[in-house]
Amino acid sequence: MRHRRQLYFHISLLIVLLWNGSIVHSQDEQEKSISTSIAGMEELLMSEKILINTVERFADELQAKVNALKNLVTVLRNENDKALQSPEKYLHNPLNGFSLIRRMHYDWNNIELYMTKPVGESYIEVIRKYRHEMPSTNDLFEASEAIHRLQTTYDMRIDDVVRGVLNGKQYDVKLSAVDCYFMGLHLSAKKNYYLSGFWLYNAIETYQNSDYNTIIDYGLDKPNALYAEALEKQLRYNDALIVIKKALSFRPDDADLTNRKNQIELQAKTYNGPPISYSKPGPSAYEEGCRGKYANKPSKLHCVYNTTTSAFLRLAPLKMEILNLEPYMVLFHDIISDQEISDLQNLAKPNLKRATVFNKSQGKSTIVEKRTSKFSWFQDNTSNTTIRLNQRIRDMTGFDILGSEMLQVMNYGLGGHYDTHFDYFDVPDTSDVVQLNGNRIATVLFYMTDVEQGGATVFPNLKTAVFPRKGTAVMWYNLDNKLEGDPLTLHAACPVIVGSKWVCNKWIRSKAQIFRKPCYNLFTTAIPTSLPVVSKMHSNACWITTFLLMLATLNSIDCMTDWEKSFSTSIAGMENLLLMESTLIASVQQFTEELEQKVRRLKSLLDELQTENQKGLDNTEEYLHNPLNGYALIRRMYYDWPNIELFMSEPINNAHVEVIQQLRPQMPSYADLSEACEAIYRLQITYGLDPADMVEGILNNKQYNVQMKPLDRYFMGYYLFGQEKYFHSAYWTYQAIMSHEDSDYNAIMDFGLEKVYALYGETLVKQNRVKDALVAIQHAFTLKPHDARLMQRRNAIELLVNTTTDEASEFLVPEADPYQLGCRGFYSNYISNLHCLYNRTAAPFLHLAPLKMEILQLDPYMVLYHDMISDNEIEELKNMARPDLKRATVYSDDNKQPIVVRTRTAKSTGIDEQISATTRRLNQRIMDMTGMDTEGSEALQIMNYGLGGHYDTHYDFFNVSSGLKVVKEGDRIATVLIYLSEVEQGGATVFPNIPTAVFPQKGSALVWYNLKNDLEGNWLTLHAACPVLVGSKWVANKWLRSKAQMFRRPCYK
Predict the structure, then answer these.
(1) Does one domain contain both 308 and 346?
(2) Minimal CA–CA distance to 142: which of 456, 498, 458, 413?
(3) What 8-state DSSP symbol labels residue 522?
């Protein structure tokens, strides 16, 4: 079964938040940091190749999806149109109601999966908007339980129910195979395997191969597998074996089904006993009443006009049918008008909530399965209708309703019922619920609708059943003359088979009847001509404010969210589902019409992606050495592929989207994209590059075979806008405008020219170029004339044009600082009196194998060694480092904790000097080169710089007191920096205060002293690693500590 896909966040909004510093990068994001290492980016190309192949296979299957969706829409539309012709009549039938809830809960979830990622975002958004309103698992459980309740209460055959025959009457409705399956699933979960088997058999018999079943992922393997389990639980192993083999024939590679078949096969061979026999229990008194067995019960009682209960009845007597004397029970006819019923229903519908039952042990009202309906309470003076109805209740009963509970209006939904119960509270007189106003002496129940089948009020102990008739009201006494509960009043509301049952009831409390009803003298068998008048009440009665209790109950129910939504417990609650489904069907229909265009767009997208990806795979090293390729790859993997996934999902074959989802953790994050943008900007500023050249692939006056796409340029502008670099943002955004073209690729990315113009307009506003900004925003508005936000911005900028007198901000390009001059190569021709030589004196070994040494500086002492490491040694160091590269850190200002900072963008790993023969040789070579001892020094650090990788100006020494942890072995007296790769452009090590620049040469090593002779830091050693412009920079460095040099180097001259 498919799992619901989580769609990506709103990309633009979060990028703005990120680049304005509103989102803090997690340590994990910083650690993954793809852009800070070329090595980390190489795998992205292969990942993208896999993704492209996935899209290609998806495109091949997409045409079949169009046909399936057309058939799906036809099926859904036919059923929904039929329902909307008369929603009330449609929903009166429980099978329609059940199918609707099951469809909305299960099918639409799968349809959404089938559609996502949408061709048109707005269509899927319609489904998502209604997601929280759709039936939950609890709704489906209750709907299934309702069908089961109807089937057992009214003793209906399951195959009749499936065919639409309810209580012997044929209806124009049938349960689908999926409906039957879910009924079987429900009953299996309740361990009712006998009845579950009947439902599952019907699920198998009614199944048809169809696009609808394909889309909702429903095949014959499912009902057969579950049917086999139901048979197995009944010890019918041979039958179960036949069925499980059928299930396996539909999914022969399913390991679970194979295991089940083997287990059942073994049980069939070893079990010789009989199957479990099932005998249907006889009907209970309650079920007999629901089935109409009491309807023709002979009675000596008769109908009268009640004229004596109140003085008003002499003018307007009430039609009263006496049903029972002990307990006293009467049925009033024509007691409430159609208009009054309509008023009550309209008052109730907006406030219907799940009905509750008083829990004796908890002392409060709770939701229970035995009562499935929704209700709403009304104060006696809520409206003229409620005022009249309360007065009528006084006239009908002769009771005072002071202190009684509010009017309660209820609606029963799918199989809605209320199991056998008493209305009175079976609690001591001292209990809070009866202490103030007494117990429920009488119940008045108004029937507000006719119910076609079912819904009777049954009194099993009296063998009396009252079936709903619109406009009637039944009234009975719950307490005997001693004010004790009468067990004969046990009653229930039978499940509604067909129809919508609305009732209104009033529970009358006993304390207010102190002068209305006597507490002694039993009724005689004589028919009373009027209700007895009370003279005195029992002196030991205790009372409580039921009104306050009910208010508290209502408040507590509000938090029961899952139960509260409960569609199946109210017909009124289900009517909106039909309208909702109609809206959803319209969305699917529009989606289907656009889906055919999706195939063409995908193929166009594939052509572009394959061309670019193959270019990278043909020469990965050269491709990724160019920062524009690296940036575009990261930006593409970060932004484009999530959009492609959204465009593809929900797939025909889950495996296609799952490939993307499996690779998602490896894709760039927001932090990666932010760093990539910053890297491109760093290169622009450090090397004085023109964005107009950069977008065309010209770097430092050298043309490369690459161009930045419009999206690349736009994101640069977007990022710089967030950094408040408005001049540069405008420059990049203008380049995006000039290169933008309508294409399927941009359409899939939801990248329209109006976005670029809108951003360009904002950058101009920030520079006080409001007239130019108005032109730009007008272009955006022309492209998207119904965009309210663009209209508001245009109006706001028009106002600025008319009111602003400030001149446009002038941007002056700053002079290059010493660091930037060094990176640009201005120090490479620096004239020096120093020279090259062979170093033979630093160690005895050098007498045999001297090192080529170029002296660069004397203060601070700085030399460059040539050919100090072989290609094989370099490759071995790289291979050791690659698996463990992590984001490079610097020590915090207090020199206590290494942290990740934006001033150092590289990845590194420390390698122990004893890990291999190569590292041991290299460590010895460093001692020979420097004449220093490496004991106590830091591990050899291997680093790789990625996209615009750099390390801003800094010192290697700590220059702090020796008491801190980082200098327990002394400060960093010297640095050995070994270049492990050539770098085509950029990547120099620059000392701006000297001024000196050393450009990477593979195999060379730079050594300099960080401390003066008094072991104080030498401020002339300020240095930086210039951004890598083109190439991959690998270095190894060793920081030598001062403490071990006690006998190697004097501390003063």
Answers:
(1) yes
(2) 413
(3) -
